[in-house]
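Supplementary notes for students who missed Thursday's class. We covered one full example, reproduced here. Read the sequence, then the structure, then the short commentary at the end.
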Amino acid sequence: MSSHTLTTGSAGQSNDPYRKTCLVPYVDAATAPPAVQDKLKVLPFRRNIFYLLGNSHGLFPHLAGVIGGCFDSNTRKIPLLDWQLIVLRTATTLGAKYEYDVNLPVAEVYEMPQEKINSMGCKPEDVRNGLGPWSERDRLILRVVDEQLATYTNEPQTINDALTVLTNEELVEVLVILGTYALIARVINGLKIDDDPPIPGLKDMLRKAVK
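Structure (token representation):
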């Protein structure tokens, strides 16, 4: 029997209308622990990733707190489009289509230039060699991201260069955001999350939910 054969409770036998491909059920908001229920209500619309991560009853509320901090300019130190640059680059590099798809509307609402969006899959050497639409700050953030995704570490020179445009706080935040969204990308890919259904009025809601 294939390792991907669906068993009892699998997507192939699920009555959950949101679940067609995911290898584990989405958490049931009605029976989840209160701390999980609270975090599922943070956004005014459903995202399958929260219902997937919600299966980790103990850790999800804390992880959701980090994600929520990224949404809030009073908590997040780096500018919103730096955050989205990190997330979209991470999602593209790791092949996490769902992560890319749910974050792209945020980048669009806050007017990331289309040329940057179109170049998100460019080669790391192009970034280092000055090609593409990137500012100097973009390039240094992308160097940090690309090295981490390739090797799980950074060259000291890369960090020194990044600190010419980032404060210590911003640099550490870049690495925390990168690590958080790389974690999420691995859950997305490993458990075959379903795409979210269309959300009417999404961009208007994002303008209110993301600062």
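Commentary. Residues 168-191 form the longest helix (24 residues). The chain has eleven helices and no strands. If anything here is unclear, bring it to office hours.
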